[in-house]
Amino acid sequence: MSNDLPLRFDPLLFANRGRQLAGNIPVQDMPRLMELAPNSDGEFYVTMAFSMSSLQFPMVKGTIEGEIVQSCQRCMGNAAVPIKGQFQLLLITPDSLELASEEGHEIFEYEGQVITTATLIEDEIILSIPIVAKHADVEKCESSVKQWMHEFDEVPTDEKENPFAKLKDLKL
Ligand SMILES: [Zn+2]
């Protein structure tokens, strides 16, 4: 897969040129993400498309796709948590913050002339992490928990019935 994501970029230059980029960023390059999900490995696939906003601020629209490893809240084992997200951000220096906020877009603030790609992407990934991580399929949980879940499944159907189900029938 081609990787044309630069380590750093000049937002004004990229927005003026309408640059479109795609590539991979290793999780290991994102230290704050590694702190939240230390067992993560692999890469995130990222797309970025730059343009000028209506008030002529640099804007980037993009997508992130990948997975991180977190502790499953059911079995405490490692669970691969898929992360998929979209973002649209105005890229703003502190002096333009007030005017830029009138556009009503989300803002990524930077100082100086360039933005480190991994820093911006890292923010977006962290915002997309689910609050409660767990194995999507209970069959993937550690065996002790699996056993417990199966015992729970064996409760007779009558006792598991949702009391509101009958109310719903009455309303019909
Ligand atoms: Zn689990």
How does this structure look, described?
This protein has 172 residues and is an alpha+beta fold. The protein has one domain. Helix content is 31%, strand content 31%. It is built from 7 helices and 7 strands; from the N terminus they run βαβαβββαββαααα. The strands form 2 sheets. The protein has a 5-stranded mixed β-sheet. Strands 1-7 form a two-stranded antiparallel sheet. The longest helix is centred in the last third of the chain and has 12 residues. The model has no long low-confidence stretch (mean pLDDT 88). It binds zinc ion (ZN). Zinc ion binds next to loops.
Overall structural domain count = 1
User: Which regions are unreliable across 5 or more consecutive residues at pLDDT < 50?
Assistant: none
- What would the average pLDDT be, to the nearest integer? 88
**Rg calculated over all Cα atoms:** 22 Å
Name the ligand types. zinc ion
How does the major sheet shape up? 5 strands, mixed
Helix content: 25-40%
Number of strands: 7
Terminal-residue CA separation: 55 Å
Order of helices and strands: EHEHEEEHEEHHHH
Summed up, the helix count is 7
Q: Give the CA-based shape.
A: elongated
Structural class: alpha+beta
Portion in beta strands: 25-35%
Spell out the blueprint of helices and strands.
Layout: E1 8-9, H1 11-17, E2 20-26, H2 31-36, E3 43-52, E4 58-71, E5 78-92, H3 97-101, E6 106-109, E7 115-116, H4 117-128, H5 143-153, H6 157-160, H7 163-171
Parallel strand pairs: 5-6
Antiparallel strand pairs: 1-7, 2-3, 3-4, 4-5
The structure holds zinc ion (ZN).
Zinc ion binds at residues 72, 74-75, 77, 79, 134-135, 141.
